[in-house]
Amino acid sequence: MNEVEKYIQTFEPEIKDRLYKLRQLFFEVSANTEERIRYKMPAYKIGKHYLYFAAYKKHIGFYLVYKLLDLEVHLKEFRA
């Protein structure tokens, strides 16, 4: 189990499920995605850019770096 998986495992089942879906999306969009923890959050390096997410008790924060607009269409289902 890597550091991101350990991070995700600390949450309630419903949040865990959403985090795993979001995580999988990054790998589907770019097979060369690198995963790690940065700034105490899961971080995904796609090319030169990073994407981050952080889970909280009542929401998931998603921090998209500009210039990755191709990913936006895939994120609609995660927006409230």
Compact description:
35% of the residues lie in helices and 29% in strands.
Which short descriptors sum up this protein?
35% helix; globular; 4 strands; alpha+beta; 29% strand; 80 residues; Aspartate Aminotransferase, domain 1
Explain what the structure shows.
The protein has a 4-stranded antiparallel beta sheet with strand order 1-2-3-4. It has helices at 3-9, 13-29, 72-75, and strands spanning 34-38, 41-46, 49-55, 60-64. Strand 3 and strand 4 form a beta hairpin. The protein has a single domain (3-78), classed as Aspartate Aminotransferase, domain 1 (Alpha-Beta Complex). It is an alpha+beta fold and 80 residues long. It is globular and about 30 Å long.
Write the layout of secondary structure elements.
Layout: H1 3-9, H2 13-29, E1 34-38, E2 41-46, E3 49-55, E4 60-64, H3 72-75
Antiparallel strand pairs: 1-2, 2-3, 3-4
The overall pLDDT average reads 85
Uncertain residue ranges: none
CATH architecture label name: Alpha-Beta Complex
Distance between the amino and carboxyl termini: 30 Å
By CATH reckoning, the class would read Alpha Beta
Sheet with most strands: strand arrangement: 1-2-3-4
In CATH terms, what is the fold-level topology?
Aspartate Aminotransferase, domain 1
> How would a textbook summarize the main sheet?
4 strands, antiparallel
Strand content: 25-35%
> Please, how many domains?
1
Query: Any idea what the shape is?
Result: globular
Structural class by SSE content = alpha+beta
Tell me the helix content.
25-40%
